[in-house]
Amino acid sequence: MLEQGVEVSMASTPDKHVGDLVLNQGAPFYPLNLSRELTPFKDLLALFRTIRLIRKIKPQVVHTHSPKAGIIGMLAAYICRVPLRMHTVAGLPLMEVTGPKRKLLDFVESLTYKCAHWVLPNSQELKKFILDNDLSPDKSKVQVIGNGSSNGIDLEYFSVTPKLLAESNEFRKAHNIGHSDILLSFMGRLANYKGVNELVAAFSELQKRHENLKLVLIGAPEDLNPLEEHTKTEIANNKSIIAVGHQHDVRKFLAASDIFVFPSYREGFPQALLQASAMGIPCIATNINGCNEMIDDGNTGILIQPKSIHAIVNACEKLINNPQDSRKMGKLAQQFVLRNFEQQQLWRAIHAFYSSNLAARK
Known about the structure:
This is Glycosyltransferase family 4 protein. InterPro entries: Glyco_trans_1, Glyco_trans_4-like_N, Glycosyltransferase_grp1. This protein is α/β, with parallel strands linked by helices. It has 14 helices and eleven strands. The chain folds into two domains: about 10-150 and about 345-360, Glycogen Phosphorylase B (Rossmann fold, 3-Layer(aba) Sandwich); about 160-340, 3-Layer(aba) Sandwich (Rossmann fold). Helix 3 (about 65-80) packs across helix 4 (about 100-115) and helix 7 (about 195-205) packs across helix 12. The radius of gyration is 21 Å and the shape is globular.
C-alpha cells in the first residue's frame, strides 16, 4: 500500500513484536489495548481511545480485523464518519457458542457489520455462514475479495530452497529425527478449539503402531481456551512431541515436516494450512469453513470430521502407509495455491477495492 502512495497507520494491542513490525512495514504504530474477552468497561475505554485516534490521524479508510477490533474500530469509525469503513472476517468465535452468549455475540457481530460499508469474509463458506445466519442487515455489503484469504501468500518466501532444506535438516538432527522417521506438524495456537487435544491423543495412539513418529507443535499456548491438563502433561512428558512455541519464521519447521495436521473446529481461511500447502506438504484438515475451500478431499489433501481422534488416526495412517500418494497430494496442493492465492495479486485487488469505493463516495 505504501508503494501505491497510500499513507498507512497501524493500531492494535501492543506486544514485543511491535518494534520489528514498525521497522518491516515502514508505518507508524498506535497502541490500542483491546481485550479478546467481553470486558464492558475496558471496551468502552478502548472505544473512546479509538475515536480520539481516528480524529487525530483523520483516515479516509478504516479496515479492521478480528471480532473485538471490528466492533471497536467500526463503531468508532462510524461515529467519526470515516468515508470508507471495511471489516475483514477471518473466523467467528460465535460458531462454537450457544445460549445467551451466542445471542450476545450475534448482536455484537451484527452491529459491527451495520457500522461497516463492507464486510469482507475471507472465504466463500464464511460468507455463506454470515448470510445464512442473517448476521448482516444488508446482505449486499458482504463480499469475498479475490479467491479468499486475508493476506494471500508470498510464494517466493514460502518456497523450499537449499538453505531452508539445510536448516530443516539441522532441526531434525538436533531433535534426533532420523531420515526414516516421519514428522507430523501442527501450526497455530495451542488451544482447545484448534483440535490440539485430539491431535495429541491421536499421536499417542499412532505411536503404538509406528515407532518412527515425531510431532512438532508450532505455536504458543492459549490462555482463553487452554488445553486439557492431560494434554499438557502428554506434551511435556512425551519425548517424541516437540513444542517449539511461537515462531517468527516457521519455514524450517514446515520444510522438515512429512505431514501437516490441522484439526481445528472453526476457521475463516487458515493461513497455516495455506503456508503448509505452499511448501508442498501433504495436509490433513477438518471439513470446515476455509479448510474445505483449500483442500479437494483425496486429491490435494484429506478432509476429516472435526473433534474426532479416530478420524485423525485414520487419515494419518493413509498418508504414512502410502508415501508416494502422500507426496503427490502435497504437489497438487502446492499447484492449487500457486494458481489461486499469490499475495501480490490479492494486495492489488484490495488496493483496487479501496480506490474504487473511495472514488464512488466522493
